[in-house]
């Protein structure tokens, strides 16, 4: 055991890659090959499934919709969480602890509980079936998370930084944008990463709040599976493509990812 | 850090407060409304008092779903926390492999949950899936759409696949934050690996482990999308967890009263158990 410490992570990563490999493998096969035989790699290699997704608007619009609400949600969550996290990390005010705790309890609310009320609420305000509705709904769990992460990173910045800036003649907002925000840039990146992640992977609310115009890619997949028979190759290709944005985003935050998962508090 | 009292800080938190209140309080009040009223459609509601709460709390269906939920959460916590800790301990601390490990391990966390379900559905199919086919080739009968044990096995394996990395990343972050001086001191004292783990690493990991257990508890207690796509709650009701049952009642049968009451009980159970975990884990801290 001692001589081969790399064995455990290697085995674990192999285990992680197997289902992903199977999905990618299947996405390059023809329907005939998938259903007719059991092959470890595609014998009749085909790009047809991908071509269909990139040429059929019902498919590629799903990606555009998903990306749209994820980006709106990420920007909104981080922008409103920034001043709030600053307040929690620097000041004491009436009800601060209760408010912080209440924010976190929303992270514990099962989306299944809120699905139906959300449907009624967003229908009532006329936002049903728009990316904005999904983006707003996802702030329920992303804002508390962003506040929590940013507060962790900000509390690591000594207060002397603020005081020195005021002595140097900065106004509050001048200090905040020119000095403070660049100082915690890593924290902002990590918070944005988490907002992106949880908005991208969530489906229950995204599916409930959309019908046709703003349908996310993940919902397009489930509906295709049930309506047009079982086109496994197409489904696998669509699934493979949903992994790409995640992989892309992880690559950017790879140096902060460990600290980020500890919510900036280690 | 000593903080200054400043009531104007409320202006900073106001946007957050308004947005979250809009998303949390209005729907929560809707649920509360459902839970104390009876409806026969057409938006006509009658006061029903605590009848739905009594009904849910005495219903065998709810008890069965709750027991399944507790069992599932218990099993995955018992597997994921020690496994995640073991993997984090054996990971390299420096060098080019660190990034590779972290990126590959984080990958499952960024896959949409229904794709996770669909992926495992395909992977575990007894005839054309790699896992299902391999298990059957070993001579063990395996079919997750028909056998209860196979369904549970697949469900647990999927969750371990999906979320162990979260525990690994948290523990890893805790481990790299331990200064080298601690290890050197241990070496001078001639401490064994077990002593290093017990007296240096474990105390430092306490905080991240608390977060890991809390997050895994909450999220596994809310599991919905992956489970629905993988088994649809079946075979029979064998994998119908609380969220799946709730959705069947709320959107399937449109029984708003019982669904509302169940939502509130469900939410309160999560809040209570999270509080309990947190208090127990942080008990020594206060002393």
Can you give keywords for this protein?
heterodimer, A: 266 residues, mainly alpha, MetI-like fold, 2 domains, 14 helices, 74% helix, B: 287 residues, two-stranded antiparallel sheet, 13 helices, globular
Number of strands of chain B: 3
CATH architecture annotation name of chain B: Orthogonal Bundle
Average pLDDT metric of chain A? 85
Q: What gross morphology of chain B would you assign?
A: globular
Helix/strand structural class of chain A: mainly alpha
CATH architecture of the largest domain in chain A: Orthogonal Bundle
How helical, in percent, are the residues of chain B?
Answer: over 70%
Question: Uncertain spans of chain A, ≥5 residues at pLDDT below 50?
Answer: none
How many alpha or pi helices of chain A? 14
By CATH, the topology of the largest domain in chain A is MetI-like fold
Largest sheet of chain B: 2 strands, antiparallel
Percentage beta strand of chain B: under 5%
- Which parts of chain B are unreliable, with pLDDT below 50 for 5 consecutive residues or more? none
H/E order of the elements of chain A?
HHHHEHHHHHHHHHH
Question: What is the number of strand segments of chain A?
Answer: 1
Distance between the first and last residues' Cα of chain B: 20 Å
What is the helical fraction of chain A, as a range of percent?
A: over 70%
| Biggest interchain interface, per-side counts | A-B, 96 and 93 residues
Helix count of chain B? Answer: 13
Structural class of chain B: mainly alpha
Which of globular, elongated, flat, extended, rod-shaped describes the shape of chain A?
globular
Q: In words, what does this structure look like?
A:
By secondary structure, chain A is mainly alpha-helical. Chain A has two domains: 1-46, no CATH class; 56-261, Orthogonal Bundle (MetI-like fold), CATH 1.10.3720. In chain A, 74% of the residues lie in helices and 1% in strands. Chain A contains 14 helices and one strand, in the order H-H-H-H-E-H-H-H-H-H-H-H-H-H-H. Chain A has helices spanning 7-27, 31-36, 48-55, 57-90, 96-105, 111-124, 131-155, 160-167, 172-183, 185-201, 204-208, 217-227, 232-253, 257-261; one strand at 91-92. The longest helix of chain A has 34 residues, at 57-90. Chain A starts with 6 loop residues before the first helix and ends in a 5-residue tail after the last helix. The relative contact order of chain A is 0.14. The model of chain A has no long low-confidence stretch (mean pLDDT 85). Chain B is mainly alpha-helical and 287 residues long. Chain B has one domain: MetI-like (MetI-like fold, Orthogonal Bundle), CATH 1.10.3720.10. Chain B is built from 13 helices and three strands, in the order βαββαααααααααααα. Chain B has helices at residues 9-35, 51-58, 60-90, 97-106, 113-124, 130-137, 148-176, 180-188, 193-221, 225-231, 242-252, 256-281, 283-286, and strands at 4-5, 37-39, 45-47. Chain B has a two-stranded antiparallel sheet. In chain B, a hairpin with a 5-residue loop joins strand 2 and strand 3. In chain B, helix 7 (148-176) crosses helix 9 (193-221) and helix 11 packs antiparallel against helix 12. Chain B starts with a strand and ends with a helix. Chains A and B meet through helix 1, helix 4, strand 1, helix 5 and helix 6 of A and strand 1, helix 1, helix 3, helix 4 and helix 5 of B.
């Amino acid at each position: 055991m001692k001589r081969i410490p790399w064995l455990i992570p290697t085995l674990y990563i192999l285990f992680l890659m197997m289902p992903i490999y199977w999905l990618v493998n299947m996405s390059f096969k023809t329907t005939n090959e998938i259903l007719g035989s059991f092959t470890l790699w595609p014998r009749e290699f085909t790009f047809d499934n991908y071509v269909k997704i990139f040429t059929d608007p019902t498919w590629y619009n799903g990606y555009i919709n998903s990306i749209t609400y994820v980006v709106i949600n990420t920007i909104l969550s981080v922008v409103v969480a920034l001043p709030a996290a600053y307040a929690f990390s620097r000041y004491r005010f009436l009800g601060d602890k209760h408010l912080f705790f209440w924010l976190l309890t929303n992270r514990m609310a099962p989306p299944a509980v809120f699905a139906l009320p959300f449907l009624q609420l967003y229908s009532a305000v006329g936002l049903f079936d728009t990316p904005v509705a999904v983006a707003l709904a996802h702030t329920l769990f992303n804002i508390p998370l962003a506040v929590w992460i940013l507060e962790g990173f900000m509390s690591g910045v000594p207060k002397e930084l603020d005081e020195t800036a005021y002595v140097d003649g900065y106004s509050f907002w001048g200090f905040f944008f020119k000095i403070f925000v660049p100082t915690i840039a890593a924290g902002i990146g990590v918070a944005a990463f988490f907002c992106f992640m949880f908005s991208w992977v969530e489906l229950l609310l995204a599916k409930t709040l959309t019908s046709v115009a703003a349908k996310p890619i993940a919902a397009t997949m489930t509906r295709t599976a049930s309506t047009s028979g079982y086109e496994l190759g197409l489904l696998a290709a669509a699934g493979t493509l949903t992994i790409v944005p995640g992989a892309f985003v992880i690559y950017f935050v790879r140096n902060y990812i460990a600290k980020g998962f500890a919510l900036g508090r280690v | 850090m000593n903080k200054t009292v400043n009531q104007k800080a409320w202006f900073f938190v106001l946007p957050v407060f308004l947005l979250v209140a809009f998303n949390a309080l209005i729907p929560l009040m809707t649920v509360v409304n459902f839970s104390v009223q009876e409806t026969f459609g057409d938006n006509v509601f009658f006061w029903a008092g605590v009848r739905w709460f009594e009904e849910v709390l005495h219903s065998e269906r709810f008890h069965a779903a709750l027991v399944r939920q507790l069992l599932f959460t218990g099993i995955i916590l018992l597997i994921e926390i020690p496994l995640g800790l073991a993997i984090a301990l054996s990971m390299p601390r420096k060098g080019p492999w660190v990034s590779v490990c972290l990126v590959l391990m984080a990958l499952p966390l960024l896959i949409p949950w229904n794709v996770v379900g669909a992926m495992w559905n395909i992977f575990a199919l007894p005839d054309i899936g790699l896992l299902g086919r391999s298990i059957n080739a070993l001579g063990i009968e395996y079919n997750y759409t028909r056998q209860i044990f196979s369904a549970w096995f697949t469900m647990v394996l999927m969750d371990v696949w999906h979320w162990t990395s979260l525990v690994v990343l948290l523990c890893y972050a805790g481990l790299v934050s331990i200064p080298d001086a601690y290890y050197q001191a241990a070496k001078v004292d001639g401490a064994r690996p077990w002593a290093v783990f017990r007296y240096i690493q474990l105390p430092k990991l306490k905080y991240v482990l608390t977060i890991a257990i809390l997050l895994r508890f909450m999220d596994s207690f809310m599991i919905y999308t992956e489970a629905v796509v993988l088994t649809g709650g079946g075979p029979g009701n064998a994998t119908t967890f609380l969220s799946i049952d709730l959705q069947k009642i709320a959107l399937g049968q449109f029984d708003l009263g019982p669904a509302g009451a169940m939502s509130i009980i469900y939410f309160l159970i999560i809040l209570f158990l999270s509080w309990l975990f947190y208090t127990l884990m942080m008990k020594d801290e206060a002393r």
